[in-house]
Amino acid sequence: MNSMNDIGVGVGHAHGLRRLAGAGLLATLAAVVATTLAAALARAVGVDFEVPDGGETIPLAGFAVVTAFFSVVGVVIAAAFRRWSNHPAKRFVSTTVSLTAISLVPPLLVGADGATTAALVVLHLVPATLMIPALARTLRTRIG
């Protein structure tokens, strides 16, 4: 049984949610840095990240912003599974692996050159390999 604080929220639940948020923040920062560095490395070896639709080049800051946004979405998904699932880690992993697989489709359809397409696929996998295990680990040690 959880002890209750004055506003009726289980202390174990609040602690677990803070732990998830902390792990999510650290994983998000790691994902943003790793993805942006990987994009910079790809650009340094000649990947232009030019998307034919409009001919614009994806800026490095764009990788950071999109990675941060979808990483936070992942933390929200993890929090929802933590709150409403009896098996949050299992549900989180199956959902986010499926979403990651779906996210690999647009780079294949955009019509960019082979190097850009390959780099974009890898850049979808980089944050997923950091975020999914970090959040799943936190969900496995659920308190409350």
UniProtKB/TrEMBL annotation:
The chain crosses the membrane at residues 60-80, 92-112, 118-136. InterPro entries: DUF6069 (IPR045713). Keywords: Membrane, Transmembrane, Transmembrane helix. It comes from the Bacteria. It holds the Pfam family DUF6069. This is Uncharacterized protein. It comes from Catellatospora citrea.
